[in-house]
Amino acid sequence: MYSPKFTRRGTLLGLGATLATPTLLRAQSIDAFPSNETAIRTKVPVQRNISSFSQQNWQDHFEQLGVGCLLADISSRALHYWGGDGQTYRLFPSSVPLTEELTKRGYTEVVRKRENPSWTPTASMRERDPNLPVRMDGGDPGNPLGTRAMYLTWPAYLIHGTHDTRKIGRQSSSGCIGLYNQHVEELFALVKIGTQVRLV
Question: What is the DSSP letter of 136?
Fold first, then answer.
């Protein structure tokens, strides 16, 4: 008759799996990817970012690689980066605009970059929420641009970080593409001025 052997290693592995279970369950919570959001497009909204989170090819979106390319996919809530070396590729979860009216699509490029950017709400943002400050300094934990920002040729549209991690994977911005601060810092170091950007 089989008698299970208890080893120190087996006990530690079992204990580790037990302790990790609540974290894994929280990570899979539907709270991170709510299913009751209004759809940005006419099709059914993405309920979980992972459902469409797949690698793409820059050749499907850009004629040439240049110094690099960024693709913001609004439907899957993902940001793709291809480096000008033809080897570097990164894929990040992102926040996307709240509504189709706030969404701008097409081609643009990165024209400047800032560490700890200051934030000045646009007139339309202040109209929607009169309680917004006139300006917020960089480094302020309440600053919605997080620790890094990359500015595009379109005024008031940026790729930036966020201190509010609940926004990632959601329709939560006023038009910008938001990333976790650690991701935007990694991307910031890679992206050069003149990097091509497409929002689809």
Answer: B
